[in-house]
């Protein structure tokens, strides 16, 4: 797996490529993509970084796995490509935005428009085997994405981190909350949301209020 990644991230994550775990991870991914159907398409594995250069990052949303259904994953957490039916978690995200900000639910579930505004949509694991959630966990991706989060936390200030669900909150333990805003809630998946704690979290208005208070531009959700 030749690593081609946006230059500002390449510079910061270069050391990760040299660590012992990364060649093993790369070989695992190469083998999986050559023998199994995997998502996202190979050219989109690092799409979260490519769409949102380091200097542009203002918000980080942490996901867990790419979607594992046909044509869904496009390398951005919670996002699907144009023309793909919105998964239930994304439906609930848009419902909360509608309730929080009064914005209509968009026709497309493609979140590239967030990424280009500085929202890093980062899954903890960047690849998955078709139909098998969690199938590429524990192979090294988590160390790689931890390193990315730590660079944002250490080198930047006034970034909003949105941590939805226990997994994201555990992964967010490395974030310096003294210089960033960290917002937590239940996960937007239907199973978690039905028990309360997702709807009404107002994370999207809180994010914009914080960015505004720091003299930074709001996100057009």
Summarize the structure.
The protein is α/β, with parallel strands linked by helices. It is built from 9 helices and 6 strands, in the order H-H-E-H-E-H-H-E-E-H-E-H-E-H-H. Helix 1 crosses helix 6.
Summarize the structure in words.
The chain is α/β, with parallel strands linked by helices. The protein contains nine helices and six strands. The strands form two sheets. Strands 3-2-5-6 form a four-stranded parallel sheet. It is globular, with a radius of gyration of 17 Å.
SSE string, helices as H and strands as E? HHEHEHHEEHEHEHH
The number of helical elements comes to 9
**Uncertain regions: pLDDT < 50 for 5+ in a row?**
none
Integer-rounded radius of gyration: 17 Å
Structural class: alpha/beta
On the 0 to 100 scale, the average pLDDT is: 96
Number of strands: 6
- Straight-line N-to-C gap: 34 Å
Biggest pleated-sheet summary? 4 strands, parallel
Inertia-based shape: globular
Please identify the oligomeric state: single chain
Strand order of the largest sheet: 3-2-5-6
Helix content: 25-40%
Report strand %: 5-15%
